[in-house]
Amino acid sequence: MQQRRKSIVFVLLILASVMARSSSTSASSRGELPDTVQGRCVRAYVAAFNSGDDDSMRGFFGEYLAASSLERVPMERRLALTHRLREDVGGLALRAVQEVTAENVSVVLAGSDGRLFLFGFRFEPDEPHGLLGIRVEPAGEQDLAPPPPPMTLEGALAAVQEAVSSAVAADEFSGTVLVARGGEPVLRRAWGLACREFEVPNRVDTRYNLGSINKLFTKVAIGQLVQAGVLSFDDTIASILPDYPNTEVARTVTVRHLLEMTSGIGDIFGESYDATPKDRFRHNSDYLPLFAAEEARFAPGERFGYSNGSYIVLGEIVAASSGEDYYDYVRRHVFEPAGMADSSWYEADDPVPGVAFGYTRNWGPGGPPEPTRRRNIYSLPARGSAAGGGYATVDDLLAFTKALLADRLLSPAYTDWFLSGREWGEIREDQAPDPAVRNQGGIGFAGGAPGINSMLDVDLERGFTVVVMGNYDPPAAMDVARTIRRILAAVVEEEPANTPEG
Fold this sequence. Notes:
It is globular, with a radius of gyration of 22 Å. 35% of the residues lie in helices and 18% in strands. The protein starts with 5 loop residues before the first helix and ends in a 9-residue tail after the last strand. The strands form six sheets. The protein has a five-stranded antiparallel sheet, with helices on both faces. The chain has a four-stranded antiparallel sheet with strand order 1-2-3-4. Strand 1 and strand 2 (104-111) form a beta hairpin. It is an alpha+beta fold.
């Protein structure tokens, strides 16, 4: 979890939000942007982004953004996200147009340093085709190629296994893959080794480190407590944790700021983390000394700043508000209702069966990855936290998504909040599930650090869930998940398939 990680943290920043994702069906053209509302919108976005001017971005959002989308995510938050993205990628240049339809445009854009990113623009289906949302994720050279030809589900699953096997043969992936449709697995298979020293293979029920995917469970826990009236999104840290070390931060930062990562609270990684023996991190509260007494990086609400520290504080808020230890609360109120029997925060020196060891190339003093892999024992804390570092299986992550979408973890109104990011003041318990939230876009969330990478991707429109968990450095699992999604986008007919296991 060392922070030679600027690009890794950016990946998590983009994928750590539950965002509307463009579907990949019925692509009508490739190669160039048409002179339509959709094409002009993409061109205008790139021009406004590259200008570096807030007024230009405001003008873009004002002209193209659907009214319903602006209500859900305020202008200032959009500008804050744009600032963070621009800091990381610099300028943007169009490299490829993957898809153009009335509702979706997918393009590959290159940052100033040559890194590729997939931008998905989603539009209203009817005139005036207002912009509903933008999804950003890392891309690779394969995304510059034409999409796969149309195929059956059976053919797609065969292509998925072939693609993953190729990545494994190139030593680019080690882990387990699950593909489900309609919540039921149609592919479940493991590749590579959980323990290279003794050549123990990964299995379909191997437990992997989740990295930041654990933040989903913390967010659900906060939602449950707000739903129950125990908490408010506008409660300050001081009102819940009176002994918090920084009184100014505690007085001004709210639960809302912590969830949005607009708190100004710093990260847990850095020189202090690197210098601290990792066996000292055995409880969520053990991470507080790494950042809690420090001065805020900016005023709360001023801008976005990725912050694992914010989720550490949220974990302490869960404990103080519920009267239960954070880990116990999540186990009782998230894992058990969801049926996640193999999920927990295992301690690194506890010999738990079926846990994959992490292998990293990021063990040198700096610079590019080393040619050989070593265990990630010197960057791995003894136990994970509310910000990340727990363990689960691919089946447990599927169980989590099914429980969430079935409103077994939150009420329908709060599930919609979780999925859409709508403004919290609009949540009403008498509000029926919103079809526009439940049937459009999807959930994309990743976690990664040295020797750790997992990806959860849910396509709400087509009913596919992809879970990829591995024990190599990022972006190993994310690359595999992206490849799988490209293949599944080519499925044109439903056909029963057995559940291959290996």
